[in-house]
Amino acid sequence: MATPLLEARDISKRFGRLQALHHVSIALPRGQTLALVGDNGAGKSTLIKILAGVHQPDSGEIWFEHRRVHLGSPTQARRLGIETVYQDLALVESMSIARNFFLGAEPARRVGPVSVLDTAKMHRTAESYLREIGITSLTTAEKEIRLLSGGERQAISIARAMYFGAKVMILDEPTSQLSIKEARKVLDYIRDVTARGLSTIFITHNLSHVYPVADVIVVLYHGRKVGEFLKGTADPSVIESLIVKGDTEPADRAGGN
After folding, report:
1. Can you say how many angstroms the Cα of residue 160 is from the centroid of all Cα atoms in its chain?
2. Where does the ABC transporter domain lie (predicted)?
3. N or C: which end of the chain has fewer CB within 10 A?
């Protein structure tokens, strides 16, 4: 495997009596996609929130660009270039594409003694950048977010992260509520951004969405890492068994018959 851009080494995390993660390690090379799969309660959300700076691990280390880092907050993670696109997307429905694209980092211009939003620059930049990275279905940045499809909303969030310098993008169930056609578009976006050198962690329940984009597949089960597979070596039946049971024992043997 290539030299990792981001590593989680031997991460453990407890919430009260719940041991959410048990000594989990993952490594994400530059320009690759790591799929993180597992059933509900597997520990996926806890791990990505540690990588996003939302939670701090009880033990273990985070390494980024060959140095150990402390991710004490989401702001610290973003400053390094780790951006998380959550399932709810944090987009403002009543605002335009351009306003959401620059949300929290709006450019301004001076009008006499007053500083006002540079809406022309926001629209021009957003439209240009969306075209540049291959999102051609959105021809105007004036459109309100509430009028967009689920796939288009994901595209806006991905494009915004790229524009503001993300090096690692964590995508939390980006295809879970999309139609087959929209999900395919999002998978295309993931392939495109990794081709541009961005590294992605892709969290999903849908294995059919994993195989077209993942370079590495990591399986979590009840907070433990139970499998890791390189592209082309993953047997779907083995991965499904690991997700459901945490091992690859045949059902009759696992049941003791």
Report:
1. 13
2. 6-247
3. C
Which pLDDT tens digit goes with each residue over 139-148?
A: 788 888 888 8
Find tokens 């004036």 and name the residue.
142
Q: Say if CB 199 and CB 169 are below 8 A apart.
A: yes
Contact 105, 119 (CB under 8 A): no
β 224-230/168-172 pair status: unpaired
Supply the Cα-derived Rg of the chain in whole angstroms. 20
Q: Where are the alpha helices (DSSP H) in the chain?
A: 44-51, 74-80, 97-101, 119-132, 150-163, 180-195, 207-210, 236-245, 251-254
Question: Structure pTM?
Answer: 0.84
Contacts of 37 (CB under 8 A, 6+ apart): 44, 203, 204, 205, 207, 210, 217, 218, 219, 220, 239, 243
pLDDT tens digits, 214-223: 999 999 999 9
Query: Which architecture characterizes domain 4-92+150-158+165-254 according to CATH?
Result: 3-Layer(aba) Sandwich (3.40)
